[in-house]
Amino acid sequence: MSLKRNLFYSLIFSMLVLKCFSQSSTPVSVRMKNVGFTFTLNAKGVPQYAVSYSKNNAILPSSLGFKLDQNVSLTENFRLIKVDSVSVDETWKPVWGEVSQIRNHYKQLTVHLAQQGEKPILLDIVFRIFEDGVGFRYEFPAQQNLKSFIVKDEVTEFNMTGDHKTFWIPADFDSNEYKYTSSPLSQINAHKWDLISSGKIEVNIPDQYAVQTPLMMKSANGLYINIHEAALIDYSSMQLHVDRRNFKLTSSLVPDARGNKAYMRSPFKTPWRTIIVSDRATDILSSKMILNLNEPSKIENTSWIKPMKFMGVWWEMQVGRTSWNYTDQMDSLYLKGKYIPNGRHAANTENVKHYIDFAAKNGIEGLLVEGWNKGWEEWTDDKEEKFDFVTPYPDFDVQEISAYAKQNGVKMIMHNETGGGATSYERQMDTAFRFMNKYGYGSLKTGYVSGIIPRGEHHDGQWMVNHYIRSIEKAAQHHVTIDIHEPTRPTGLHRTYPNFLASEAGRGNEWNFFIDGNPPEHETILPFTRLIGGPMDYTPGVFKLRNYAPGAPDRQMHSTLAKQLALYVTMYSPLQMAADIPENYEPHMDAFKFIQDVAVDWDDTKVIAAEPGAYITIARKAKGKDDWFIGAITGEDKRKSTLSLDFLDKNKKYIATIYGDGKDADWKTNPESYEIKSVSVNRNSKLKLLLASGGGTAIHIKPIN
Amino acid sequence: MSLKRNLFYSLIFSMLVLKCFSQSSTPVSVRMKNVGFTFTLNAKGVPQYAVSYSKNNAILPSSLGFKLDQNVSLTENFRLIKVDSVSVDETWKPVWGEVSQIRNHYKQLTVHLAQQGEKPILLDIVFRIFEDGVGFRYEFPAQQNLKSFIVKDEVTEFNMTGDHKTFWIPADFDSNEYKYTSSPLSQINAHKWDLISSGKIEVNIPDQYAVQTPLMMKSANGLYINIHEAALIDYSSMQLHVDRRNFKLTSSLVPDARGNKAYMRSPFKTPWRTIIVSDRATDILSSKMILNLNEPSKIENTSWIKPMKFMGVWWEMQVGRTSWNYTDQMDSLYLKGKYIPNGRHAANTENVKHYIDFAAKNGIEGLLVEGWNKGWEEWTDDKEEKFDFVTPYPDFDVQEISAYAKQNGVKMIMHNETGGGATSYERQMDTAFRFMNKYGYGSLKTGYVSGIIPRGEHHDGQWMVNHYIRSIEKAAQHHVTIDIHEPTRPTGLHRTYPNFLASEAGRGNEWNFFIDGNPPEHETILPFTRLIGGPMDYTPGVFKLRNYAPGAPDRQMHSTLAKQLALYVTMYSPLQMAADIPENYEPHMDAFKFIQDVAVDWDDTKVIAAEPGAYITIARKAKGKDDWFIGAITGEDKRKSTLSLDFLDKNKKYIATIYGDGKDADWKTNPESYEIKSVSVNRNSKLKLLLASGGGTAIHIKPIN
Predict the structure, then answer these.
(1) Nearest CA in chain A to B422
(2) Per the CB < 8 Å rule, is B382 touching A256?
(3) Could you list the residue range(s) of the whole structural domain that residue B398 is in?
(4) In a domain? residue B695
(5) Residue predicted with more confidence, B348 or B24
(6) Residue of A423, A433, A463 to mutate, testing the B interface (most B Cβ within 10 Å of its Cβ)
(7) For burial by CB atoms within 10 Å, which of A31, A356, A511, B374 has the most?
(8) H or E stretch including A114?
(9) What's the rounded mean pLDDT across residues B432-453?
(10) Which InterPro entries does the UniProt record give (chains A, B) (predicted)?
């Protein structure tokens, strides 16, 4: 398969060049409905931009620029050469997604600058103004005075108008797996808050006043502002340093082993910096700006790419019932020696067949098996060669399992945990993908738990950013879809690489196993933060919410069972896991029915209600069907609401099956209490939803033929 | 081909277990002819060793130990568990070499130590005492209290007896391409001496009092002592910090990006630390200790591995007549763009055919072509993706050239310059070797000019040490021999990997092109230093010694023409280049005859005379023939000597063709003056040699049938 660029693929092309002019003085202003934008070159030749929404300022005048190697400072003394302008209105169809087609409607300004001096340096800044915000990127044209260069710092500013309420996690270079803190901008302090949970392997927060993106803020006058980036390619991830006194955020790029931020050659385009803004929280969740700022699919034939639900031989290891590793006596036995089995190894042929049986019987398409390959005995240390990606443990008969899965119509999902050893993985990648092709694995989960090798590099730095893309491209060449755990948080690249179905890159449901878990509000924040960049493999669907971990009776999920179901709708992903083990589903097959039925690809999505940290209600229409699925969740607070079904077809009748919290449900004291009822509905119906503390409701609305 | 270990391959096995005992108290002493050795555990539980030669001390009591991560100090408080002893006397045949068989004769002590404390750590030290010195290594047995660990420092001491004369280069982490300084130990100071030559791309000398190994010393009482290491695998290179007051040398390992020295898991064996000692300088050059301390060949079928001579489309670029790169206008044209040729590109089909014609006509087996592949426009910068190893420039028709070379019996040598981008090379390696196999390239020259990627790693660190071995193993799998430029200096690994024919890893003949060049003494020091670890691709055979570089009339080789010939014998390598261009050889085809005739593989070698910094005379018997070749070189001083031919066969008559300096020859004023004469000789003959300043003599002694 070629990865050749095909601009017209899946693109309903209707670009309207409304006007196209050049000018050579500032300020330049543009308006798109409520969003106002101004670019200025100030008296010192500093490029600045500002954003407003309706009559309110969203971003006050903010400076743009760079510091490069050899003491080149690209921050002031610029001269405006000209400004080009163009308007675009087009619609395109994603290979999969929340909606079947996406409108890309913006006005674009390209500001051509030259820094004055003996050896002028050319810098273009491209702004795209949408109805829901602004995206901009820097472009370095090919030029004599700047061929190869090092980015020492990008100094992009976002000047906020006040001490906004902010949902933030600290700017770790290697992880996004934190609980969110909501605080005013002025109170951000990664060292002050209780952020570092148990079990974190690597913590690297050199700047206590810096935060990860997507960063979600809410102003006192009700503006929702989200800052992130789009199309992160060949560059390091942007974090934001917070000037707590002046409410100014400044880009802070993740460094490499030498402390540099990126290595470039002109011509080069940075990722887009994105500001999504609205006076309605639901608009933030509906925004397609980040997808629109990414390039169309590089994969020409996408017919092999399919969203799916899957189960995993995983949760039983995660809760400590069984083990990934085959032996506990690793000394001198590693790889070359004779293994002495520990008797607790989950990925054995018999157990895998048991999962295949359950999945096949209950219509779950895929099965992930972790801990099947050699290397799990010694992999969190600093040695480079950790895993062997083609050699199963002696009790995992890959041939037999593949045949059995095929026979039962279940798709096996490969697992390649690298332990952070990216160089080792790159060396073995060709072999690993040939192995997948040989044994019929069409999907892959990769992992980067532990410190990165090349040593001194970080999960979120330029080298690893490129590595993840290499793994996606290699997967595409082998017709394999990919789900990356522990990469940098996504930036919409699944438009360009639609085989990149999902990633973790955030604090998943699995953390509920650990002592402090995820607070009930967690899933009401994630769609405003982590999910802004792309789908998350959150692994919902845990039914046994207490007493699941041997020897750890105090641990429990911070959720009701009904909420676990609602997450399949509120946490968008084309790849959704039914995370629990068959034995925990079997007592609740009535509730499991929702997991069986819920779609993973959609024609339409309505964000009905949303407030970060409080609640989310979303309705989605299944791809190619008239079925709707609704998820409603709440945080710690109980929530009573009325749901209007006015999005339903005028002429159709429906049956709604409602999976709600039981009357006495409560995430802490009675999480397993749920009620299922069916009612006839139409577009005039209103449903009363009653969500328990930490609870939720899942609804399947099916047309009556 | 499998790389399976075959211990018995090429090994004439005659191990004699003379005695085998255990004891559990120190001191333990061993003698092998002149070499005396003592191990002691002193009162503080510090392991110490000492070496003597004849009646003189060579190494005074010196401590051994480590500093590991988590503040584990393995330097004292050891308890002796037991000492095992064994004697070995065996003979083995190298696949190629200076001699047809090698005796491996030593007594071995294995000292089993345990550090006292709550969690005792086990450490074994293995000493091998030879007739020409001592080798020792640390071994960490598999153990509960030390599984995975980081070496923060190895603290191996070498306490010298006085202020020895020392031939040294500074401890750069990334290069050995320095001129040697000869000074007393007390005067070593890398920042003081004029060491850094023009054209060095990366200089990294964080310790001005540290030096590279092999380190050659001579004591006031005439002992020659050489310190180096053998079998450097999965560990970083050892440099030596010099305590100038106490004449104490301490191991200083090359750090990685994090400042760590090595990442290990027990069981683990360090490389051998080697001390070669004798009262005769010629014994140092004859020593096979480092080869003996390496493992036998891992390559089972070695029939495809052949030493050879070769020419190169290279020197013409090196001196600036032509270019490696195809275009000078690289901006925006790199890789994807259309190239505008600069008209100076050497690796074009026509020019390559011209070299093939010359090589074929004159019996030179191989031809290296540099600058044939895309990437030479932008490769010394910091970007990772520099070279494309399978895409020729438009004027290099690989198919036509391969066919033409085959038709003319010339073997093409592949060139893969990485620019230090090791990760990029590893990703492309499979493709690159398939390309070599497809077009019939059986040999490869690799290069690592410029800083290493992974960034923060060094040429001489553990990661790159493993990378070089990966490239050797990958080459072996594809039946390709390899010549590595800019690796760490060799440590005898060509025994284990006989397809690893040579490396540069030192200051080659090419430096004579640069302004300060190599002083005439340089080649009299290299065999005592750089070559102790393995063959060097020095690229001798430059015939046009002045006025070869356009626009640089002041540059000249620091050598006479006859010395260039003698180097083929004095600088041992199974891979010898005839470095000059055909046009420069054509006026001197009488002298070129020696390059045609000289062997590259040997049945026997006699080091007749040697003094580091002054002179070397070596005679070698061609493999499977009765021909002898002799090389005699001198430094700045003229040298008159009488050469006895008593190594010749008693019953044979010979013709000696002598390629000597002309009477008026002088490297500076008249380097091209040479004389060729033939005389009949036998084993009673004595030849008078007269070497000019910077001169040499090459002799071919051929039996008369």
Answers:
(1) A423
(2) no
(3) 308-597
(4) no
(5) B348
(6) A423
(7) A356
(8) strand A102-115
(9) 97
(10) Aldolase_TIM, GH, GH-type_carb-bd, GH97_C, GH97_catalytic, GH97_N, Glycosyl_hydrolase_97
